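Researcher: Here's the sequence for the chain we discussed earlier.
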Amino acid sequence: MNDDNLLSATAGYVDTLSFVSLFGLFTAHVTGNFVLIGAGVAGYGQGVFIKLMAFPAFIFGVALSSFIIRGRNPETPMRGACLLYSVQAVLLLAFCFAGVKLGPKFNPENWAVVLCGMFGATAMGVQNAHSRLVARPGVPNTVMTGNVTQVILDALDLCSPRVAVNAKAVARTRVTKMLPAIVAFGLGATAGALAYRNFGFWALLLPVIGLAWLGVQAWMHRNALVKLAS
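Model: Thanks. This is the structure I predict for it:
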């Protein structure tokens, strides 16, 4: 599994785990929280406050990522990637421990619950900012709407006899890149729900390990490039 697919699986995993555990909170993207806040204001659902507090937490994650990359100005994209993987892993670890401390029963208005959700939203804010701050090939890995739309359009082009051969080649290449990320996100979402059912918030240790592995790979790649340049 390449970096994009692992990150897609991580986004699906964490977003679904937070959704089933924290009263419908989306941590990987804000669109769903807009919808749920609107529903909560109208009297549907619960946990409006935790969803509202996810916004400043998400913004902080994006701003923190920008400071790390633009402020420190890492010499290579791989070093920047390593830093962001490490920060996200630490934040997900905090999310894990904060969730474990909640115990078996908790309500959405409790500040400990809100803080737990904010750790998750901050971590996923870092992942959302990553692809925009670190120049690297790949596809969006936190929200699949755009990827699914593009794959459908490309599939229609591949089936159309009126589309030029070179355009079909481009579409085929794009589908080859995007489809695995979509599948990985879906598998990650299913795994996140099942893992929470069986292990509770301890299930967040899995994406922490995955991010640590990505960080190590990025650091090794960075060191290899430095050696080649010297």
